[in-house]
Write a structure and sequence with these properties.
Blueprint: E1 2-4, E2 10-11, E3 13-18, H1 23-27, E4 34-37, E5 42-47, E6 54-59, E7 62-64, H2 70-77, H3 79-86, E8 90-97, H4 103-107, H5 119-131, E9 136-149, E10 152-155, H6 167-175, E11 178-181, E12 193-196, E13 201-203, H7 206-217, E14 222-223, E15 231-232, E16 235-247, E17 253-264, H8 271-274, H9 281-305, H10 308-311, H11 321-325, E18 335-342, H12 349-360, E19 366-367, E20 373-376, H13 395-441
Parallel strand pairs: 3-7, 3-18, 8-17, 8-18
Antiparallel strand pairs: 1-20, 2-19, 4-5, 5-6, 9-10, 9-13, 9-16, 11-12, 14-15, 16-17, 17-20
Helix pairs in contact: 5-7
């Protein structure tokens, strides 16, 4: 019995998703100042009007727009790493962005609508689809749902009924949740950083995962801000653990233990945009804790990109429970994808620039993914740089012209994205029709060869 350890390096994949203008923004005639291109994989932000207009363009691994479907987002982010998870790797995807930009929609979506499901339910369906392959002789899948609210850990799968006499004991168990580091991690055999006493439920089919998600959503901390009526006020980490045994072509059996962490971060926000003047003390504490943990995450990313780990500098993983839990996902042994969500509205331009700069800082971080697998032998032997430009002119006419230009560029970008989405849909339909026609035609049988007469002696 020998352990398999993969030492290749893997950069963090960073993608951006631009949501459409909301009904409130359309009714208020809000100026759209952000455009995106799926083909060029670029996002452009226009800040200011008149002679002080600044145009910033950012390049990423992938870019999604309002015309990108939930399936397309999954195919370009999580689908490629499902095989890695089944092969014993630990992978993480997390959504980052301002509140109200669609993080929860991207991660969870509408779980009972097949077309609108987010990456978490789609990952569950894909995992069980692949485990149905006859090469898997045995498998077990379990799920956990952790919430980090005001730097406190909460088990979202723990059933607590206020009318139940055992509720107090359940709460005591929940309060006992704490981050623990397995000392055997260095040997690549331990659990690494994990949460002690966190509920981990066995799931036997993807519908079980949907039921857990629905159960957990009723307990998650949400609140209303100026940017979003149902703003997530906490970080949520949904984890699928997959243990499997797969028969290899040579007859040996490979045992793998992989994990998939899907993290829906709380929305970043400034006090002004979130309604800081009217916040009560508890809401102000929420905002400060959210921004503090996200700030720590940003510092970790910046130091890792600058090579702080190699230089022996202290990486502040322990400054927040979020970064401590995600330590292996950032410069560790995980395969990681960051989905940054942004708004096209001029009202959120500062937060949009901050999000894009934050996401771009994750480029260049190198992880060393490590597979956690055991082989049982059954046979003998063995960014573009930001650019600035100005428009000549004076007074309100110049501002009006700049705003008109922003709207024109946004509409042109929308038209291009609509055409690209239509082309992708057409190609998909043509492929389906082609496969259907080949299936109806059936296998092509070769024409019978003419028989040769037997010579008469």
């Amino acid at each position: 019995m020998s352990s398999t350890e993969m030492g290749e390096q893997s950069g963090i994949q960073v993608v951006v998703r631009l949501r459409p203008m909301s009904d409130r923004e359309l009714k208020g005639n809000t100026l759209p100042v952000v455009t995106a291109s799926t083909e060029k994989r670029e996002v452009t932000v226009i800040k200011g009007t008149g002679a002080r207009t600044l145009r910033n363009t950012f390049a990423f691994d992938n870019v999604f727009t309002s015309f990108s479907t939930q399936q397309e987002v999954f195919d370009q982010t999580l689908a490629p790493v499902i095989s890695d998870v089944l092969g014993g790797y630990e992978s993480t995807v997390f959504a980052y962005g301002q509140t109200g930009t669609g993080k929860t929609h991207t991660m969870e979506g509408t779980i009972h609508d097949a077309d609108e499901r987010g990456v978490i339910p789609r990952a569950a369906f894909d995992v069980f689809r692949r485990l149905a392959d006859e090469s898997y002789v045995e498998h077990a899948v379990s799920a956990s749902f952790l919430e980090i609210y005001n730097e406190e850990l909460c088990d979202l799968l723990l059933d607590v009924d206020p009318d139940d006499i055992a509720a107090a004991k359940a709460r005591e168990k929940q309060q006992a949740l704490r981050l623990v580091e397995d000392p055997s991690t260095a040997k690549r055999k331990g659990r690494g950083m994990y949460v002690m006493n966190l509920t981990e439920e066995t799931v036997k089919r993807p519908e079980d995962v949907l039921a857990l998600m629905q159960r957990a959503s009723t307990r998650r901390q949400v609140g209303e801000t100026k940017m979003n009526k149902q703003s997530s006020r906490s970080h949520c980490v949904f984890t699928l653990r997959v243990d499997s045994k797969r028969r290899m072509p040579d007859g040996s059996v490979m045992e793998c233990a992989g994990k998939l962490h899907m993290v829906d971060l709380a929305g970043s926000e400034c006090a002004k945009s979130a309604g800081g003047d009217s916040l009560d003390p508890s809401r102000e504490r929420e905002r400060k804790n959210i921004n503090q943990s996200l700030l720590t995450l940003g510092r970790v990313i910046t130091l890792l990109k600058a090579g702080g780990k190699a230089k022996g500098e202290r990486i502040p993983y322990r400054d927040s429970k979020l970064t401590r839990l995600l330590q292996e996902s950032l410069g560790g042994r995980c395969k990681t994808c960051v989905i940054a969500t942004v708004s096209p509205s001029s009202m959120a331009v500062d937060e949009t620039l901050s999000t894009l700069q934050y996401a771009q800082s994750a480029h260049g971080i190198i992880n060393k993914p490590t597979a956690s697998s055991m082989l049982k032998v059954n046979v003998d032997g063995h960014a573009r740089p930001a650019t600035a430009g100005g428009n000549a002119g004076n007074g309100s006419s110049t501002q009006d012209w700049s705003e008109m230009e922003c709207r024109m560029q946004y509409l042109e970008a929308q038209a291009e994205e609509a055409a690209a989405a239509l082309a992708r849909k057409h190609a998909e339909q043509s492929s389906l029709i082609d496969r259907a026609e080949r299936a109806e035609a059936g296998p092509i049988t070769p024409a019978p060869r003419p028989s040769t007469p037997t010579p008469t002696l």
